Amino acid sequence: MENFFIQKNITPSEAGMTVKEYTAQLGISKRLLAEIKFGGGDLLINGEHVTVRSVLADGDVLKVEFPKEQVSETLLPEPVPLDILYEDEHVLVVNKQPYVSSIPSREHPSQSIANGIIHHYRQNGVQSTVHLVTRLDRDTSGAMLIAKHRLAHSLLSAAQKKGGVKRRYLAVVHGRMSQKEGTVDAPIGRKPDSIIERMVTPQGQAAVTHFCTEKAGDTCTLAALQLETGRTHQIRVHMSYLGHPLVGDTLYGGKTEGMPRQALHSERLSFLHPMTGEPLVFHASIPDDMTSLIEQI
């Protein structure tokens, strides 16, 4: 996304604000503003270069030019299949398949969703890097939200912190859940001596998960879950904490039972478009392995 910019006409109620104050009101974070100042972007009032301390007047035209998107030299484009649910010049929504990482890692340095996105961008002439707004564990499937430029990423990240990016998950857990619905409000932190595993601990970060049962059998339950926070492994940790670990989630007490991954799918994603404010809702189809498991309940 080359030479991306926004332009605003200043109203009487906005006159007297500094550029810094006004851009913060637009949702431009301090970090992004620093990138604009020092990374090749620009701030102009009526065509004249200004600083963040410049004061706006009624009738001024403020133009905010964003730095050219720089594609990471270490993130290689690879033809990873992408199930694209939605795409425009600002955002991308994909239905991630299981057994594919969101980003490269030491254990899985290639063939990630991020590698596939860079390849997709290059094939379609999009000058951008990967700005993940939501990410999923390697074995979790479902809807993921990606911003295509810095401003969209800043706005969506701010919205996510305020609960404006909503995700509904489906999970198959062990046992018959007796509660029809409920909330787990239990802080999550790292498990001692592990760089991967998390646990419920008073020393952890606040974590809140809402759940309701969709289908209950004798040995397994299909649960729908909504997150208020986005801690690492939050659903997996909270369900295990309740005594109902996810089927296939051997890290947190689950058994495979024909499902060699955790039975977790990001089924619904909703948010307001960062540039237009339009409400968007997406549903991601459930993979065959989890569909088969659900049918057996």
From TrEMBL:
Residue intervals of the Pseudouridine synthase RsuA/RluA-like domain: 90-240
Catalytic reaction list: a uridine in RNA = a pseudouridine in RNA
SUPFAM superfamilies membership: Pseudouridine synthase (SSF55120)
InterPro entries: PsdUridine_synth_cat_dom_sf, PsdUridine_synth_RluA-like_CS, PsdUridine_synth_RluC/D, PsdUridine_synth_RsuA/RluA, RluA_PseudoU_synthase
Keyword Lipoprotein: no
UniProt keyword annotations, A-Z: Isomerase, RNA-binding
Enzyme Commission code: 5.4.99.-
NCBIfam families, sorted: rluA_subfam (TIGR00005)
Name the UniProt record assigns to this protein: Pseudouridine synthase
Organism: Bacillus nakamurai
